[in-house]
Write a structure and sequence with these properties.
Helix content of chain A: 40-55%
Low-confidence stretches of chain A: none
Oligomer: homodimer
Number of strands of chain A: 11
Mean pLDDT of chain A: 97
CATH superfamily of the largest domain in chain A: NAD(P)-binding Rossmann-like Domain
Radius of gyration of chain A: 19 Å
Strand content of chain A: 15-25%
Number of domains of chain A: 2
Largest interface: A-B, 34 and 34 residues
CATH topology of the largest domain in chain A: Rossmann fold
Distance between the termini of chain A: 50 Å
Structural class of chain A: alpha/beta
Order of helices and strands of chain A: EHEHEHEHHHEHEHEEEEHEH
CATH architecture of the largest domain in chain A: 3-Layer(aba) Sandwich
Chain lengths: 286, 286
């Protein structure tokens, strides 16, 4: 019978570390500040915006929400990014994606300075995730997986990790973060032959396929730690992960539930990145 | 008994494609041009410089070798990179690395425009390799592995590929190139438990560990294709790969020898990148 890994516990532990950084900054008269940039009123964006604002507020991090109408021009959005770059009181920037389709998201996003790119949106941040150089920050969800594993006290060195999914927002970056921590990493996807057998080999299984409950009983074995990154809505309108929780819970050792698992850690990681960015940007003042 | 994959045959096939591009460019009065930038007289650099010059010459690609003394200043090297960026007659730039230790290689290297970065040196090129976006070029050796697999007519989709080594110049980028072609990719390294067993699971095994003859008989099984990226000098001063060729040749299906395997394809890939860069940089003229 699996033990749930409660995201809120991971989040609480991480929050303690963030508070220490915020305190250090406060002593120097600096309020770590996140600016969000949104185009349109996508309900998912609005929900994340509210969640992030609440979490940041609880940690002493200021949030400035910048909202543009869905028909915002390329020039306006680009200017908003450049303005945030130049404003020393803004330490981190989160631009909600996807942008409306007519806008060149790559061009606008890449205008952001990597040191303020707290959700790993820019090409330079991606290069940092890939090469291990300190450039930018990884996407928050990928980093949330690492925080969870650290919270559980798992030494990743030499562990077999299997990541299902190869997206640029989660599959690829989490694979690189695991590799940096000396895990053996296998990246699987829709074309993988005998996916269930590959998954069963894992000590740590990261499900990031974006398909509701696709990871069933045949994908798991006793002793595994399972991170379920999926956030899907099933045919009954219920939130569910990529893992069929009911089918695997008797078998695996530990598992993150959905909701209340990885998703509950993501905004705390965002806050951690903002606090870290504020510290780095003010290094010279200590 | 394994069939050798002769690098020169792969190189010849690729050369045909390059000649077509060069011909197209010639018709427009454009000579595809590579500029190399070297600091000091490292014998390995000199040898590669000669090899690249010879190969490019045979393909109608001009090469300009820029050589600085080992005590060149940061400013001089930086200026050389910027000058190459601004010169429209230079389509590709290869800077030999490592630079002398006192120089900030990252800073100087990243000054290069990714569209002229024909050996995947810059952070932006790395991001392109990682995310699959068309930014820059992958490191030539990583791309050489792909050219070899294509030459062999291997459909990578769903194939189990195991990469031994996780360096930024070969292990990581070749893993990402394999993933982009829909292979299932496992990245192994010194910390991997039971490395030989992981290697045996591979349909395609890429040895890029940088340790002479470390891949022995217990790492292979019948049917495998083995790419040996290693270029080492053994205790008798003989060139050898990461694979113990004599120990595995009876077992595996196909293997690249050392010398005469992957290394024989690398400079041709460099030439291919220069021709491609010249075409892209002159797109508007067609």
């Amino acid at each position: 019978m699996a033990l749930d890994i409660p995201g809120k516990d991971v989040s609480s532990a991480l929050s303690e570390k963030i508070r220490q950084k915020v305190k250090l900054l406060e002593e120097k008269g600096i309020t770590p500040t996140l600016r969000t940039i949104r185009a349109g009123d996508n309900p998912g964006d609005l929900s994340y915006e509210r969640g992030a604002a609440k979490r940041c507020a609880a940690l002493g991090i200021a949030v400035q929400n910048l909202a543009f109408p869905a028909d915002v021009s390329r020039e306006e959005l680009y200017a908003a990014v450049c303005e945030a770059n130049e404003d020393p009181s803004v330490h981190g920037v989160l631009m909600f994606r996807p942008l409306p389709a007519r806008l060149n998201q790559d061009e606008i996003g890449n205008a952001l300075l990597p040191q303020k790119d707290v959700d790993g949106m820019t090409d330079l941040s991606m290069s940092g995730v890939f090469t291990g150089k300190e450039v930018g920050y990884p996407p928050c969800t990928a980093q949330a997986c690492m925080e969870i594993l650290d919270y559980c006290g798992i030494d990743l060195s030499g562990k077999r990790t299997v990541v299902i999914g190869r997206s640029n927002v989660i599959g690829r970056p989490v694979s690189m973060l695991l590799l940096r921590r000396h895990a053996t990493v296998t990246v699987c996807h829709t074309r993988t032959r005998d996916l269930a057998a590959e998954a069963r080999r894992a000590d740590i299984l990261v499900a990031a396929a974006g398909r509701p409950r696709m990871i069933g009983a045949d994908f798991v074995r006793p002793g595994q730690v399972v991170l379920d990154v999926g956030i899907n809505v099933d045919e009954n309108g219920r939130l569910c992960g990529d893992v069929d929780y009911e089918a695997v819970k008797e078998t695996v050792s530990r598992i993150t539930p959905v909701p209340g698992g990885v998703g509950a850690v993501t905004t705390t990681v965002l806050a951690a990145h903002v606090a870290d960015a504020a510290l780095r940007q003010n290094r010279g003042r200590w």
